[in-house]
What does this fold into?
Amino acid sequence: MSNFNPDEIIQDVLAGDKDKFRTLVREYGLLVRGYLASRVYHLEDAEDLAQDSFLIAFSKLSSYEIGTNFRAWLLSIAKYQLSNHWRKSSRRANTMDKFRHDIAGAIQPEMVKASDEMKQNQINKLLHCISELPDRTRHLIRAGLDGVRMETLAEEMNLKPNAIYQLRHRAHIALRKCMENKEPETAS
It folds into this structure.
């Protein structure tokens, strides 16, 4: 940029040689893109903002004061574009958050109802499956649900703790198979 004089090019553009503005874009494009790219998340946004900055600079070129710092003037336009970008992005993000919140609020009662129905169906199915177990196994499951200690249960059922563990394991397998069936089996 040592021999480059933007003021001469700007005077030519203002005099009617609009194509000379491309020289300014070539000379300052990397600067503006680099400035913007270091401040946004996506390269495409930086490219769009740079293009918008040059379009605005072209449209406001008559307000540029010859002899001042064109680089600083151009970067101030880029900064303004960046500020608008963040404001719009923030507004868009806030709108999306509000939309998500509104949707969640609208469907939550239906989701809770569906969840409650599903839980109730699972509970009914589990109760049915427990009822299908032999008496001794049902008693073991009930004792486990009530929090009866293993030693107490072993004494009560007149079994060794190892036998209780094996019986409980078989009961869990039987319950799992029953719960995996689509329709609860009816007692014959």
Remarks:
- The chain has two domains: 6-94, 133-180.
